[in-house]
């Protein structure tokens, strides 16, 4: 290699010296241990941050899909008078640009009783045509079918509710409503038995253990809503545009209504998720910062140990900038390899997160990620490209910054002082 080539920034000899310092010798074992700790610290920090953020993204995405898949993006409720003209109102709202479809429904709370016990449930009455539009229900029927949902007096219930009541498709359950027939003695509870025509599983425990779907005309009779509905749900093409569509929906309704959207109804829940997500990102980034500090301590010790070598390189013509680059490469290499290893580890875990959860649950004999607590029946993971790139950039940047001070110390080392007592 010529003298001119050796003087170029990041020349071959600088890389050779940097990687030579990365290889441990017996008398440098302690420095090597610190380097390995830095590597594993960065790897685990990056992997943990990627996994946690992916799980939280998946958790939010799955919840959003489930919540918006079973509940309307906009809910239109009557003001001053009952929704007796619901068919006409629904048709006008469905004609608004951006509205995919609308569902008039009757809703009420009941006590459901079966051979296995009694639990509270939420009955939602709607037509077969409307129920078919709810793909989370119509496409996830485990038992029975919805073929004659409108024609026969039957109901569809969630899988967890069916297990709680101890029933299967074809069995009967009793629904008890406190708002029944009006008698001279007051309002008598209404008790009626219905056959279970279908059992569905949405995948969100709260819904699977609560929802009962009933034909609209039967729900109107059961809840004393003859000729009217409780509200109308509107599903739009872009849920994030519901705020801009409110005025158009209110105008199309042609009558006094009160409109609420999905963001208003779930604002506390999704705000809490966003705050938790941001805090976890900050907290877990500190893991990478701690690993970067290990790089600083390791390089400082390496500089102290290699003072004699640095002095000889300086006397042979190596510039301060060249010495600085050697130690920057040494530290940055640890950070780069650790970051890439963390990315690969995080990617593997995210792709197999549910299998890992089931394996750990089997080994520990405990139920991790309980559906009753977390609402979802499986552990989701959704890696966001921009977020993952941000994690990698932060890790590489912290690793690079951690090398600057030790490299500067090495560059400013006086070769005369270093060789004085040699």
From TrEMBL:
- List, for all copies, the residue spans of the domain called ABC3 transporter permease C-terminal: 281-415
Query: Which keywords label this protein?
Result: Cell membrane, Lipoprotein, Membrane, Transmembrane, Transmembrane helix, Transport
- Stretches that traverse the bilayer: 29-56, 279-303, 323-349, 389-408
What is its membrane topology? Answer: Multi-pass membrane protein
Pfam families, A to Z = FtsX, MacB_PCD
The similarity comment for this entry is: Belongs to the ABC-4 integral membrane protein family. LolC/E subfamily.
Q: What is this protein called?
A: Lipoprotein-releasing system permease protein
Q: What organism does this protein naturally occur in?
A: Cohaesibacter gelatinilyticus
The root-end lineage is: Bacteria, Pseudomonadati, Pseudomonadota, Alphaproteobacteria, Hyphomicrobiales
